[in-house]
Give the backbone structure.
Amino acid sequence: MNQSQRASTCVSSSLGRHPFHDAVADTAATPITAEYTGILAAADIFTHDNAWTLLESLRIDTGILGPFGNHP
């Protein structure tokens, strides 16, 4: 799935995603998508977004908030 196809399938794609985070999510989602497309319904649509959300959750939970992150 290329960038324009993914952008048309997910609502949050225009909310300021960083290209590095998209690349990491692509790396994580590619083998899952290849294995489960045709077996698991909508695996090709939601796997990238789920991988990106997991990456964001891990980044926030570990405190890697970027240059403007506030540490409580």
Notes: The two ends are 39 Å apart (CA to CA).
